[in-house]
Known about the structure:
The chain is of the alpha/beta class. It has eleven helices and ten strands. The strands form two sheets. Strands 3-2-1-9-10 form a five-stranded mixed beta sheet. A five-stranded mixed beta sheet has the order 4-5-6-8-7, with no helix packed on it. Strand 7 and strand 8 (235-237) form a beta hairpin. The longest helix has 18 residues, at 40-57. The protein is globular.
Amino acid sequence: MAYVASSMFKALFRPKQKERRAVSTGGRVLYAIGDVHGRLDLLDGLIARMTDDYQALGREDPPVLIMLGDYVDRGAQSSGVIDRLIALSQQAAEGRFEFRALMGNHEETLLHFLDDPQAGPSWVEYGGGETMASYGVQRPVGRADLEVWEQTRVAFRAAFPPQHEQFLRRLELMAVYGDYVFVHAGVRPGLPLERQVAADLLWIRNDFLDNAHGLKATVVHGHTPVEEVFVGRQRINVDTGAYATGVLTAVRLDGGEPKIIQFSKPRAA
Length: 269
């Protein structure tokens, strides 16, 4: 009797096992890259490391490369980054790998500026000036009026290659593979995927970061820079603030434990 009571006591107070994280990738090898923000040098280095990583797996099925958005602004090579992404999409069309490019809030803002000069002042506050410079356009000085911003918009649109605009306007908001959901910023907790809206997928922060989202999936995202990659059952954040830290991060998902892959360069003095 004492043994039974002891066993019941231990069972009652035994720590609950952690819920097993979602691991299915639908049989695919997935690579997701965080916010690039104009750092073409880091993107090229990371892709090289990911290529070596995939070759070491010894698999023959094409992997999936998912870009999580925010390719432009803040860094100096935004134009070059978009060129590289277009080249990757063309290589993917040859069947070497699958390529999914998601939209970030910075791409959305750039597209708004192409259509409306009033978007200019807020855009440059978040790094749009560096993007303009990468296309050979100078940002207005000081608190310019709307007429100056319209002149800048016209100059920027003239310098912005049509293929770059086509690429940005075709960016996706979400990609789903197995038990993983890929978005730029996060999801609105409590809503199924089919009811998620673009504003949340591109911009959400604390409501997503601080609360359980309720999906039977792991959300892989960027948007909110972190010093160290966050890997949890609910979400994985791979935005390591590349433009400021010199560290660009990707995660490889293949049904086992996530593997973090990084490429870095020292910060300029």
